[in-house]
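BUG: 3D viewer hangs when loading the predicted structure for this chain

Environment: internal workstation, default settings.
Expected: structure renders.
Actual: progress bar stalls at 90%.

Input used:
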Amino acid sequence: MADPGNGASRFQVHCSGAILDVITSVHRVASRRGIGNAVTRAFRQIIRRLEADPFQVGEPEYRLPGLRMQIRRTILSPLVVEFGVCEDRLLVFIKGVKLLSGKSS
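Structure tokens produced before the viewer hung:
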């Protein structure tokens, strides 16, 4: 596994343009529900944690041995974020973002 060492190195967090569009859409929906600020706070906190030590964030879902990558999922209300962590490089790739289901009346 990649080791950030004494804290000097941080993981780089990346996402594709398509995922960026999903993030924008999720925020738009959240804003309509009145939880846009909560989504922004949760997403920023998740990114900070992924930069520091993504192997300690969320739960492992599965491994892609050919890519030497672990796919993980974390939930920080009101968000669910799925991401891949390279095992031999300080890289994280966000692969999915969605809102937790709202309570129905």
